[in-house]
Amino acid sequence: MTSLLMASTAENCSGYRTCAQCLEQPGCGWCTDPSNTGKGQCMEASSRGPMRMPNASAIAKAKSEPVLDPGLCPSDNHYNWSFIHCPGIIGVHRHRAGPQCIERACQCNGHSKCINESICEKCQDLTTGKNCDSCISGYYGDPTNGGSCQPCKCNGHASVCNTNSGKCFCTTKGIKGEECQLCEVENRYQGNPLKGTCYYTLLIDYQFTFSLSQEDDKYYTAINFVATPEEQNRDLDMFINASKNFNLNITWAPSFAAGTQTGEEIPIISRTNIKEYKDTFSNEKFDFHNNPNITFFVYVSNFTWSIKIQTFDFSLKMVTLRTAVISAVTSGTRALHAVTEALKLFIDINSCLTLATEYEFVIHPYTQQLIREMQQMASRPFASVNVALETDEEPPDLIGGSVKGHKLKHLKALKPERCVTGDICLLASAETQSPKKK
């Protein structure tokens, strides 16, 4: 039983990489090598010196007692043996919590020479820190006691990783994984970061807002989008703005696969240090008809944290307002009095139908189309608008503001809606006042 316990302890001793960790374990001692860098080895020991553990055959023959072996840490070759305190103890400081050792040991983990037996002169081997016990930025590993550091493996999508675990801090929004090897498909990102990058899939006629303000977003410096026109006979309008400056590159390819796998993207525009960009991509120029899978790639890069980015792609025909059909319902009488009241409601409509997600805000295309139509109408102050009424009775007297002797008292606009004819309708509630009896 004793021999098995000793063997287990020996295996555990060899796993400790610093003198302080080693001497905290019972039955372990530290042998410092003569390199004057703090490098050494933790091994099975007693107060008399290092112990040689029996091999498997000796254990089988019941000759399992560990044997004292000073040759494992030969002092003649300037190796230094420690069992109670790490090398460099020069005194004891009295403290109310108990006596504490004062150390002047060289603890550079084998990556630097010591100055005055305690200060690391210059950390080498891609290490940093007071004791050269951490990897420099862009590298990871365990450099203690002569350990090594290796470059972060991030597939070109990060330059910095966790110095201990090697987990990459991806710089492009939508790319994830320990080595930045995956796209966030659950959040509408697609692509292949092992061959290219990841893109957020934009919906035509929707507005998206990306708010990169959380602590986890601080490493992001780029975000990419992809948009495909839904109809071949309509232009694609694009609008992008941000709270800080960014660089912008837009390309196109006959299909999404061509753009992400074979690099056949064709440049369209390139801008630097901008906050806003608007453009229209003509269906005739880019031949949407013969390129039904045409894809536009939008690369937003070189921005700093934190930032808010908005993008809006739409592909709609311009709508000309010709007739507004407005219905007003009362107790048996339908009437209209104030067209200006209806127009005011049109102009005051805003993006109240906004759907918020974790970092995206989407405005429904129906609301967006109403807004564009209202803005177009408002930009034509001298245009005329014809008004038609739906009524089961005789047409009302619009000039006099009365209907068959009933005076219009109050008109309340309710909501806009699309008529079956494709025009804009406004549902309203009207209140009339009967003429006084003489």
UniProtKB/TrEMBL annotation:
<keyword id="KW-1015">Disulfide bond</keyword>
<dbReference type="Pfam" id="PF01437">
    <property type="entry name" value="PSI"/>
</dbReference>
<keyword id="KW-0472">Membrane</keyword>
<feature type="disulfide bond">
    <location>
        <begin position="123"/>
        <end position="132"/>
    </location>
</feature>
<keyword id="KW-0677">Repeat</keyword>
<dbReference type="Pfam" id="PF24972">
    <property type="entry name" value="GBD_ATRN"/>
</dbReference>
<protein>
    <recommendedName>
        <fullName>Laminin EGF-like domain-containing protein</fullName>
    </recommendedName>
</protein>
<keyword id="KW-0325">Glycoprotein</keyword>
<dbReference type="InterPro" id="IPR051568">
    <property type="entry name" value="LZTR1/Attractin"/>
</dbReference>
<feature type="disulfide bond">
    <location>
        <begin position="135"/>
        <end position="149"/>
    </location>
</feature>
<keyword id="KW-0732">Signal</keyword>
<dbReference type="InterPro" id="IPR056732">
    <property type="entry name" value="GBD_ATRN"/>
</dbReference>
<dbReference type="InterPro" id="IPR056863">
    <property type="entry name" value="LMN_ATRN_NET-like_EGF"/>
</dbReference>
<feature type="domain" description="Laminin EGF-like">
    <location>
        <begin position="106"/>
        <end position="151"/>
    </location>
</feature>
<keyword id="KW-0880">Kelch repeat</keyword>
<keyword id="KW-0424">Laminin EGF-like domain</keyword>
<dbReference type="InterPro" id="IPR016201">
    <property type="entry name" value="PSI"/>
</dbReference>
<dbReference type="Pfam" id="PF24973">
    <property type="entry name" value="EGF_LMN_ATRN"/>
</dbReference>
<dbReference type="InterPro" id="IPR002165">
    <property type="entry name" value="Plexin_repeat"/>
</dbReference>
<dbReference type="InterPro" id="IPR002049">
    <property type="entry name" value="LE_dom"/>
</dbReference>
